[in-house]
Amino acid sequence: MSALADELAPRIAPVVLANITTRYPYHDAHLTTEDAIPGDPTLAHPAFGNSFDWHSSVHSHWTALQVLGCFDDPALRVAVATNLSETNLAAETAYLQTHRLYERPYGWAWAMRLATAAPPVRDIANLIAELAASWLHVLREPVRHGVHSNTAFALGLMFDAAKTLNHSDLERTIAARAAGWFGTDRDWPEQWERSGTDFLSPGLAQADLMRRLVTPSAFARWWRAFLPTLSPQARILTPVTVTEAADGQIVHWHGLNLSRAGMLARIAVALHEPLLLESALSLYRASVERAIFGSYVETHWLATFAWDAAIGIDRARAVL
After folding, report:
1. Which of 115, 109, 169 lies closest to 143, judged by CA?
2. d(CA 304, CA 92)
């Protein structure tokens, strides 16, 4: 059985290259104050002023490094090195120092994940780790819907990165906050998922976070209480159909299929549950081609979620 990642890498490398070398269109969530003159956002972001928006650029660079690990594409390698130059990253760090809420929490999470693969990004990750720890100390409740502000998804990426980058304070803070917010959740109403523009499953995002934080046996108990009546036909396991891929919000559902696939593959390993892996494969197959052949409104971000799902499924296949 060939690995999904090995099959996907040569197909998706040109997509990722196009993403990180495309400057416009670009959408920037920049707060402009009265005494500031709006500038060209791609000039403000010499490293990540591409791939349609900052967070997509950050995770596209992570995807690029992942792909290069199993498929050598010289043009992609050059593009990554050019964008992630010392000068460019210093400018990005300076921007975050003066815009301390920028891209919180989704962009923060991806930047920390990128830093685990790209040491030059660690100054940015160090700054974000400080900002995130402070933020979590004052955040009273998590955001539970399935778009960029979802708390559980961001905390999962940050937790993994904090462990790798030795940010023990952030690691402990995430573990404590997650336990308080999600540790006693029961009877998740999975039939209420999904919202019309979700690209993340709120339920699976918090399950994917909890499996990182507790022992396998404790996670199995938590999962059984969280989704006690889960069946293979459950909405949370079933691919969704996108009715209008040209709509940048409706097309989020392709991402929902792919992000669910990645989460379920990791959960399947934690639970030793092959049936969840079957659902992950079904979800992956439903949308992977859109990450390669879709319009730019799709490919600028779906490539990352396709890759994440592929490597998650490959790892699950190896042990189940």
Report:
1. 109
2. 21
Contact assessment for residue 84 and residue 57, using Cβ atoms and an 8 Å cutoff: no
| Res. 1: pLDDT tops 70 | no
Provide the b/e sequence for 176-207 (b: ≥16 CB within 10 Å).
ebbeebbeeeeebebeebbeebbbbbbbbbbb
Query: Does pTM surpass 0.85?
Result: yes
Q: Is 213 buried (19+), middle (13-18) or exposed (0-12) by CB count in 10 A?
A: buried
Terminal CA-to-CA distance of the chain, rounded, Å?
Answer: 14
Q: pLDDT tens across 14-58, in order?
A: 999 999 999 999 999 888 887 877 788 999 999 999 999 999 999
Say whether pLDDT at 234 is over 90: yes
